[in-house]
């Protein structure tokens, strides 16, 4: 019983990290209920030198898999797909002048912040292990 | 204003042009003319042809074609009789014939205006740019390291536009003014996501026509009204407001009040259409509060050409640059840190963004933009101001003179255009009595003045007016009273390049200095797959400059355009014959515009048949990026269809058809496919689409592999476009002009522009770039049935010979029946990359060290090169290319087995510049000889030096600079 509540507590204050097969990551803060969304290091390498991030507007209510903007390298423009449904509450302004931050630290550079509509939808996403399996196939 | 009606007349019987003795089989061959085009057009002579046939294991060209093209798709109906397609006539006879056609166009004194004006093309520019193959035979500058000359010229052009308009960023041209206005509307719609757009009723009618057409198919509501009096209480509903100054009636407006006050906080795009020359003395669009400005740069030294080609401009405030249509040239750095030009922000464009692109445009008007840029360079800011003032003074003198005769002149500030009220019969009077063409709207007669007019012209007009009004007044006293306006402009074009090249010697050297930097067809084969860089014969080009073709205003009365009527009717007829389709429209100004027009035709057909909900467009994933981009602009929804091993996946196609049974509008297919094979299932696909109520759009990009052997009509297509700049020898101009007419079957014919149920308007004038039509005309006439067909076969022979010669070194990705390719083939560089780290880009750049332009990179398959030699290259040139490619393969082997360093090798560091190689600090792990002279021929032929090393693309896109450096930058 004691152990269980400790576990619950830990979970309550933790950040849950999940992945999509489209190479986005989502880090969900269970306390603030806000998620940060970015792209994986693998995606960053595939795109090459990133030169611009095209954001959607703050306040956009989005469905799962809707485009939340695009990341542009010199030769490719890749959509950022919503891992879950929600609402955009913030965008990473630093990326406007330094889009290369994604190349440098993809897993730590968030692109946008979102309110998640339905927490349970996170369960449908991949954990690190399953994502790694996909990219190493 | 578009002339939809033509004089009904018999089409000139072209076959009669051939001298009867020339085509009489009874006359022995040795009597025939010595100047036929066919043997000149085809690169190889018969012995070389035989050697290549042997290499590809075919006994004859006919047998080769039988091996390549599946029987079920062969049809030679188009080529059976001289009644529908001519016999070849000799080069000299064709030039004479075209001169006589040009002479049938009557060059009356022209004051028509409305977006097209007379201009003096400086002869140094005419001969050394427009008529110079170093400029006109190069391709779009994708390979920037060997394109620095025209990239610099295009950057100058962009600077001219931004300096004159006051805007932050200009692109490197659009097709014409009307489509530029349409692009502005589309930008407004996609930026502000609203479906209503306001257009001032004094915008040029051709622009309004096109805006309405474009809006109709996208479901955008166009409100045309008087922006001066409209109250804009409902401004929030609009995504944009588009006005013009000087307007259709010549009035110069200051839109500051509307844009900076009335609409200050409105969430909409503020667009001003304008006249470039007027901006040398008038307030800029930027100062009037515009977000976007557009117009035509034709009067900067580009002949009117009965409508084109010329370059439209489009410039925006910084905020909108990533949504701008068209190519943008920017400055970046090369591997050595040296400043270098390149095409920037390409992710906006169709070849990357596909259905999400900002526009479908790819071919623009590079050659003409360069002419306009050189014109501004040659005249400089003072010169431009002088021309603008002169034109303005001529117009104002004329207005005063007309007033002095008691005529009522429209009030308001003018630049170059004068409106005389209540002169209903004046247009006719001047046409018949003074051989002078002017514009007429209702009771008003309109005169537009330009650089070519003189005081004498004004006096002549005045004398006619005296006669017409039966009144007298004094000429000289009026003339002496007109003085130039005080300029409203801050100093502009202060950069060095616009202030140091005003003598002809300096100008000539600058033009040649730039030209020498580029690889065009004058230097080597350009084997760009899908681009068809074939010969652009000099005798085809010559008539483009004939005065009768180049100096005619597109809205001239029919009685003055007889020569063009015969020319266009013949071109239309022959295109019908070649495609085996019913009717042709010459209006689309580029391949992409052809796709767009063809799709509008399909949409209009469904709408007229009560099936407006048919809006699904199936597109195989192998299609060119323009296909989905054009489909979206036509208001269609794109559904991609899979491709397996180079062939359309029939299972997936069936599935997508079933899923969209009720809403299927059409499929877009390319034939032969973009993978360079003649699919044998095409007829089946076409039948399937038809059975489900859809229509078939055939992309004509590869028409050069059909001519004479099969046709879109025979295969069952309903509509196709034709890239006259690929198949029919119009040169690529370093990125335009192009022409993309469409051919349609009987079902779709009524919907062509200008016909009964016209789909609308897709260009500024009915024949858009009419003055380059003598080129395809010459192609048909000089090559004739036999020659045109032989070109197709030779293109296949050259491609297969190249493929056979390279297949042991490089993996060939797809082949058709009997292991043969069509007119092009793809080599796969991905396995090489995996083994050695060498990429398709490394090979492309390394080819520059060998003096070659690279084949097409990563289209239609990423990590590949697509090679298309065309029929115009000789076996010896192909052998030189083979030698280069084989040697590059040896270099790759050296990287693989460690003889070369993985990173410091001739491939990764390619291309090598002269200053790198002669630098005494050379420290690479290979020799300078290996770097710059990898094969003996490179030295023997004369080295073609790339002028910059590998360009840093990311730096350029992250630090966008698209104008010439300012004076202060030079001083630093």
TrEMBL record, chain A:
Its cofactor is (R)-lipoate. CDD domains: GCS_H. GO terms for biological process: glycine decarboxylation via glycine cleavage system. It is found in: Mitochondrion. Residues 34-115 form the Lipoyl-binding domain. Binds 1 lipoyl cofactor covalently. It holds the Pfam family GCV_H. The keyword Transferase does not apply. The glycine cleavage system is composed of four proteins: P, T, L and H. NCBIfam families: gcvH, PRK01202.1. The H protein shuttles the methylamine group of glycine from the P protein to the T protein. This is Glycine cleavage system H protein. The lineage of its organism: Eukaryota, Sar, Alveolata, Ciliophora, Intramacronucleata.
UniProtKB/TrEMBL annotation, chain B:
It is an enzyme of class 1 (oxidoreductase). Residues 792-912 form the Glycine dehydrogenase C-terminal domain. It holds the Pfam family GDC-P. Belongs to the GcvP family. Its EC number is 1.4.4.2. Coiled coil: none annotated. Residues 40-464, 478-755 form the Glycine cleavage system P-protein N-terminal domain. The glycine cleavage system is composed of four proteins: P, T, L and H. It comes from the Eukaryota. GO terms for molecular function: glycine binding; glycine dehydrogenase (decarboxylating) activity; pyridoxal phosphate binding. It is found in: Mitochondrion. Keywords: Mitochondrion, Oxidoreductase, Pyridoxal phosphate, Transit peptide. GO terms for cellular component: glycine cleavage complex; mitochondrion. The glycine cleavage system catalyzes the degradation of glycine. It catalyses: N(6)-[(R)-lipoyl]-L-lysyl-[glycine-cleavage complex H protein] + glycine + H(+) = N(6)-[(R)-S(8)-aminomethyldihydrolipoyl]-L-lysyl-[glycine-cleavage complex H protein] + CO2. Its main location: mitochondrion. InterPro entries: GcvP (IPR003437), GDC-P_C (IPR049316), GDC-P_N (IPR049315), GDC_P (IPR020581), PyrdxlP-dep_Trfase (IPR015424), PyrdxlP-dep_Trfase_major (IPR015421), PyrdxlP-dep_Trfase_small (IPR015422). The modification N6-(pyridoxal phosphate)lysine is found at residue 726. GO terms for biological process: glycine decarboxylation via glycine cleavage system. The keyword Calcium does not apply. Its cofactor is pyridoxal 5'-phosphate. This is Glycine cleavage system P protein.
């Amino acid at each position: 019983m004691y152990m269980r509540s400790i576990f619950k507590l830990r979970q309550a204050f933790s950040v849950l990290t999940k992945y999509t097969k489209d190479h986005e990551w989502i880090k969900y803060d269970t306390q603030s209920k806000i998620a940060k969304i970015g792209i994986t290091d693998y995606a960053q390498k595939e795109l090459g030198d990133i030169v611009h991030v095209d954001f959607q507007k703050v306040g956009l209510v989005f469905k799962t898999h809707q485009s939340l903007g695009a990341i542009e390298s010199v030769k490719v423009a890749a959509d950022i797909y919503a891992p879950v449904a929600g609402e955009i509450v913030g965008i990473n302004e630093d990326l406007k002048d330094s889009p290369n931050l994604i190349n440098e630290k993809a897993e730590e550079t968030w692109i946008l912040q979102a309110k998640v509509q339905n927490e349970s939808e996170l369960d449908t996403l991949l954990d690190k292990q399953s994502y790694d399996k996909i990219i190493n196939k | 204003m578009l002339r939809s009606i033509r004089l009904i007349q018999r089409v000139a019987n072209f076959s009669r042009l051939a001298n009867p003795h020339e085509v009489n089989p009874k006359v022995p061959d040795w009597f025939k003319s010595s100047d036929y085009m066919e043997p000149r057009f085809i690169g190889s002579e018969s012995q070389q042809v035989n050697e290549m046939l042997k290499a590809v294991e075919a006994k004859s060209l006919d047998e080769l074609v039988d091996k390549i093209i599946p029987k079920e798709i062969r049809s030679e109906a188009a080529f059976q009789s001289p009644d529908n397609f001519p016999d070849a006539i000799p080069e000299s006879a064709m030039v004479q014939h075209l001169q006589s056609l040009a002479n049938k166009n009557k060059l009356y004194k022209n004051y028509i205006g409305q977006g097209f004006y007379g201009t003096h093309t400086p002869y140094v520019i005419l001969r050394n740019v427009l008529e110079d193959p170093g400029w006109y035979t190069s391709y779009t500058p994708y390979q920037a390291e060997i394109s620095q000359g025209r990239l610099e010229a295009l950057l100058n052009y962009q600077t001219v536009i931004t300096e004159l308009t006051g805007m932050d960023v200009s692109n490197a041209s659009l097709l014409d003014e009307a489509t530029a206005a349409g692009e502005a509307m589309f930008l407004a719609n996609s930026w502000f996501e609203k479906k209503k757009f306001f257009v001032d009723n004094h915008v040029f009618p051709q622009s309004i026509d096109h805006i309405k057409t474009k809006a109709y198919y996208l479901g955008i509501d166009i409100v045309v009204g008087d922006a001066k009096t409209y109250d804009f209480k409902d401004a929030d509903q609009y995504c944009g407001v588009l006005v013009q100054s000087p307007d259709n009636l010549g009035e110069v407006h200051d839109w500051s009040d509307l844009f900076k006050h009335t609409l200050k906080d409105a969430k909409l795009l503020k667009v001003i259409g304008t006249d470039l020359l007027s901006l040398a003395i008038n307030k800029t669009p930027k100062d009037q509060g515009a977000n976007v400005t557009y117009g035509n740069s034709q009067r900067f030294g580009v002949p009117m050409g009965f409508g084109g080609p010329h370059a439209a401009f489009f410039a925006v405030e910084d905020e909108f640059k990533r949504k701008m249509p068209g190519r943008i040239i920017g400055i970046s750095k090369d591997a050595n840190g040296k400043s270098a030009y390149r095409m920037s922000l390409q992710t906006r464009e169709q070849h990357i963004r596909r259905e999400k692109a900002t526009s479908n445009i790819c071919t623009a008007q590079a050659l003409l933009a360069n002419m306009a840029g050189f014109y501004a360079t040659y005249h400089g800011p003072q010169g431009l101001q002088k021309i603008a003032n002169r034109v303005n003074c001529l117009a104002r003198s004329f207005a005063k003179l007309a007033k002095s005769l008691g005529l009522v002149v429209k009030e308001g500030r003018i630049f170059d255009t004068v409106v005389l009220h209540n002169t209903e019969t004046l247009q006719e009077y001047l046409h018949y009595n003074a051989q002078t063409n002017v514009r007429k709207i209702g009771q008003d007669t309109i005169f537009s003045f330009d650089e070519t007019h003189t005081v004498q012209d004004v006096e002549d007009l005045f004398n006619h007016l005296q006669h017409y009004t039966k009144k007298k007044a004094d000429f000289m006293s009026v003339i002496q009273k007109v003085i130039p306006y005080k300029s409203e402009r801050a100093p502009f074009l202060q950069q060095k390049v616009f202030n140091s090249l005003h003598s002809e010697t300096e100008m000539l050297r600058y033009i040649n200095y730039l030209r020498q930097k580029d690889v065009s067809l004058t230097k080597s084969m350009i084997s760009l797959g899908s681009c068809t860089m074939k010969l652009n014969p000099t005798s085809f080009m010559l008539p483009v400059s004939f005065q009768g073709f180049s100096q005619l205003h597109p809205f001239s009365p029919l009685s003055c355009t007889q020569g063009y009527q015969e020319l266009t009717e013949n071109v239309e007829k022959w295109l019908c014959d070649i495609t085996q389709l019913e009717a042709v429209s010459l209006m689309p100004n580029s391949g992409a515009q052809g796709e767009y027009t063809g799709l509008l035709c399909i949409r209009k057909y469904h709408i007229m048949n009560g099936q407006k909900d048919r809006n699904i467009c199936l597109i195989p994933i192998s299609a060119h990026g323009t296909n989905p981009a054009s489909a979206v602009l036509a208001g269609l929804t794109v559904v991609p269809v899979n491709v397996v091993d180079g062939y359309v996946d029939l299972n997936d196609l069936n599935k997508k058809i079933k899923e969209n049974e009720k809403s299927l509008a059409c499929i877009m297919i390319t034939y032969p496919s973009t993978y360079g094979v003649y699919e044998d299932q095409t007829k089946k696909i076409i039948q399937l689409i038809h059975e489900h109520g859809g229509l078939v759009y055939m992309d004509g990009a590869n028409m050069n592999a059909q001519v004479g052997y099969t046709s879109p009509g025979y295969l069952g297509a309903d509509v196709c476009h034709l890239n006259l700049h690929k198949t029919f020898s119009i040169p690529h101009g370093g990125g335009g002009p192009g022409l993309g007419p469409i051919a349609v079957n009987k079902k779709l014919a009524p919907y062509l522009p200008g016909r009964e149920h016209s789909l609308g308007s897709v260009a500024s004038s009915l024949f858009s770039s009419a003055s380059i039509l003598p080129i395809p005309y010459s192609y048909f006439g000089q090559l004739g049935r036999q020659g045109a067909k032989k070109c197709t076969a030779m293109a296949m022979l050259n491609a297969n010979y190249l493929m056979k010669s390279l297949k042991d070194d490089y993996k060939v990705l797809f082949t058709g029946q009997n292991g043969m390719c069509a007119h092009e083939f793809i080599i796969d560089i991905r396995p090489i990359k995996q083994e050695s780290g060498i990429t398709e880009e490394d090979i492309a750049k390394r080819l520059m060290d060998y003096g070659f332009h690279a084949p097409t990179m990563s289209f239609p398959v990423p990590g590949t090169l697509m090679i298309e030699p065309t029929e115009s290259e000789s076996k010896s040139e192909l052998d030189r290319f083979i030698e280069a490619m084989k040697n590059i393969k040896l270099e790759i082997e050296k990287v693989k087995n460690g003889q070369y360093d993985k990173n410091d090798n001739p491939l990764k560091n390619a291309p090598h510049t002269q200053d790198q190689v002669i630098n005494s600090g050379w420290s690479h792990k290979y020799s300078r000889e290996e770097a710059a002279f990898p094969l003996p021929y490179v030295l023997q032929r004369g080295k073609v030096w790339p002028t910059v090393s590998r360009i840093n693309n990311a730096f350029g896109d992250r630090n966008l600079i698209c104008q010439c450096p300012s004076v202060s930058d030079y001083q630093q």
